[in-house]
Amino acid sequence: MLAMMLMMMIGCGGWLLFSAREIRDDGAPRCFNCSYLLTGLTSDCCPECGAEITDETRHLAPPAETSWPRFILGLLLLLGAFSLAVRVFMPELIRN
Ligand SMILES: [Zn+2]
């Protein structure tokens, strides 16, 4: 029962951490440098950051964004699971 709870905490925490960095992929062309939306752009420069837009860079994935609430929640879950595991399975570690 407790082991199952620990597994779930670790699983959820790990998943949250892992998915905290997400690449915004809505299929629309975006600047590879600043992820500015490039739909309808006719020039060769990103109007937002000035990066050169070529056919090659046009199809690069935009930078991944970190979702900090997700990251922190995942970290807290993992830390909670860890401290719970120490308390339950290795109580002698925190006794002295
Ligand atoms: Zn840009």
Count of individual domains: 2
User: Low-confidence parts lasting 5 or more residues at pLDDT below 50?
Assistant: none
For the biggest β-sheet, the strand order reads 1-2
Provide the succession of SSEs.
HEHEHH
Mean pLDDT: 85
- Rg (C-alpha, Å): 21 Å
Report the strand count: 2
Bound molecules: zinc ion
Number of helices: 4
Largest sheet: 2 strands, antiparallel
Which class best fits the helix and strand makeup? Answer: mainly alpha
Helical proportion? Answer: 40-55%
Fold and architecture overview:
With 96 residues, the protein is mainly alpha-helical. The protein has two domains: 28-65, no CATH class; 66-96. It is 49% helix and 4% strand. A two-stranded antiparallel sheet has the order 1-2. Helix 1 (2-18) runs antiparallel to helix 3 (68-89). It is rod-shaped and about 65 Å long. Zinc ion is lined by residues 31, 33-34, 36, 46, 48-49, 51.
